[in-house]
Amino acid sequence: xxxxxxxxxxxxxxxxxxxxxxxxxxxxxxxxxxxxxxxxxxxxxxxxxxxxxxxxxxxxxxxxxxxxxxxxxxxxxxxxxxxxxxxxxxxxxxxxxxxxxxxxxxxxxxxxxxxxxxxxxx
Amino acid sequence: xxxxxxxxxxxxxxxxxxxxxxxxxxxxxxxxxxxxxxxxxxxxxxxxxxxxxxxxxxxxxxxxxxxxxxxxxxxxxxxxxxxxxxxxxxxxxxxxxxxxxxxxxxxx
Lengths: 122, 108
Description:
The complex is a heterodimer of chains A (122) and B (108). Chain A has 122 residues and is mainly beta.
């Protein structure tokens, strides 16, 4: 059964840091591009970052470039998002999501994890 | 950045009725459009990709169409479990991948 499980969310002060993890199971992580996507009631769904299957190609939304770092450890079947210099506007549910098809760079997201909540507040 | 607009914001229908949701892109995206369903407390689920292809396990009552800038998602006969939020998303011109603001299908 294909599954993604995020962890690492919580309450953090503005300017602080947090590292999210996404544990993959039921498929070979090394075959797939992966994404982080966030969601708030105000801004809806917002794509955050995208990483190639090997980790050699990485893309970021302008809103997080220079503050967030996506990475992966295929041997551990895990995806990560290091978030630094956090701002109130980073408050959101964060989802990891897999590309639909292996060995392709497409941007159809399926499946998604259940999400983890980040709250940035003093 | 490709901006996606969805209409209507809310669609109030009864079970058994037909639902038609629209998504418009600010520039041509060919057929690089997906539809997702999200229920309260759950993550989005891929329904349709490449404008008209159903994802694995998605019932045939869901269909997608369109190309260029105008797209639609049709639910031929609403089941009780179909009342949810629906989002469109493009992967033609990226980064960034972009999503529409969503259409809520609720029960009349």
